[in-house]
Amino acid sequence: MSKDQYLDEAPAAATSGNLASQRFAERVASSQGDKVVDTERVDLLAGRAIKALNDIIIEERVSYDEYNALKAWLIKVGQDGEWPLFLDVWLEHSVEEVATSHREGNKGSIEGPYYVENAPELPWNGTIPMREDEPGTPMKFFGQVRSTDGTPLKDATVELWHADSDGFYSQFAPGIPEWNLRGTWVVNDEARFEMHSIQPAPYQIPTDGACGQLIAAAGWHAWRPAHLHLKVKAPGHELLTAQLYFPGDPHNDDDIASAVKPELMLDPKPTEDGKGVTVEYDFVLDPEA
Ligand code: MBD
Ligand code: FE
Fold first, then answer.
1. What is the Cα–Cα distance from 76 to 89, expressed in whole angstroms?
2. CATH architecture of the domain with residue range 3-285
3. 31 falls in which pLDDT band (50, 70, 90)?
4. 192 lines ligand 1 (CB under 6 A)
5. According to the model, what pLDDT value does residue 2 have?
6. Are 16 and 167 in contact (CB under 8 A)?
């Protein structure tokens, strides 16, 4: 391989990181045009964050070497486009907790950096877009969408996106067709859905980017357990963003993104032919206040 060819191959971390940063910026630009700055909140939150870091520097006697290592690392997070990854892995779970603690229905879980809006629409029992030879264990996932009072929500949609059997997401990792393993199911008149896909593999934070560098330097592990991402929408109800997990994954108890909750654990059953799994899970949405 010539040097030029080598340079064409951007590192995996920077490829997915920069795409995640770009997509996030586009979503912000299209949705937040009219928001005004709340000076009091910025003063409070930015002030507290800066103070917390100063306290750590004083209490832990941080050296110039350590300060410069931090500076270099923060610059690299930006260069690798890994701010979405860093924030969603280490902070989003607390934001999600604050946002959904009032709910009587499903509380859900974090969105993460790899959501793309407007995934292809499918009938209530449709098959997710996938490659002809998509590797992985076939999975049938069915259930119903209801309101907290038990009413079936017949106008609901269920979006599903997940990694492939190598742990990679379409539209972020190279070489995977657009919309692969991403779809939007329209429920039937009993508010039921039956989604056909494959089981995702666990996800590893890229080892060649700034987040991977931090993980290695701190002696942490880089894994999220295998998971399904979902967004469940129905008119007059709060949007549910959730993740669901598979029992037995080695990282269900120490997810690097702290996003596993006991009520999000699936109970997959082998299909009759023994080749796939069937899982059932119902979603309960809170009416909008
Ligand atoms: C993921 O796939 C994910 O779901 C989160 C929250 C962070 C990094 C990668
Ligand atoms: Fe994910």
1. 17
2. Sandwich (2.60)
3. confident
4. no
5. 37
6. no
Atom of ligand 1 nearest to the CA of 112: 6
Residue 1 has pLDDT above 70, yes or no: no
Return left, alpha or beta for 160; rule: phi > 0 is left, psi -120 to 50 is alpha, else beta.
Answer: beta
174-196 pLDDT per residue, tens = 999 999 999 999 999 999 999 99
The pTM of this model reads 0.93
Q: Which of 21, 114, 251 to mutate to test the pocket of ligand 1 (most atoms within 8 A of CB)?
A: 114
What is the sign, positive or negative, of the torsion defined by CA atoms of 118, 142, 228, 243?
positive
Using DSSP's 3-state secondary structure scheme, residue 287 falls into strand
Ligand 1 atom closest to 163 (CA): 2
pLDDT of residue 35: 77
Q: Is the CB of 20 under 6 A from ligand 1?
A: no
| CA pair distance 100, 102, nearest whole angstrom | 5
SS3 at position 163: coil
Atom 1, ligand 1: residue with shortest CA distance = 112
C-beta of residue 184 within 8 angstroms of C-beta of residue 119: yes
Q: Confidence class of residue 34 from pLDDT cuts 50, 70 and 90?
A: low
How many other β-carbons are positioned within 10 Å of the β-carbon of residue 120?
A: 12
C-alpha distances in Å from residue 170, one per residue of 63, 116, 119, 173: 42, 10, 11, 6
Region for 239 from its dihedrals, namely left if φ exceeds 0, alpha if ψ lies in -120 to 50, beta otherwise? beta
Q: Which atom of ligand 1 is nearest to the CA of 257?
A: 6
Give the number of other Cβ atoms within 10 Å of residue 266's Cβ.
17
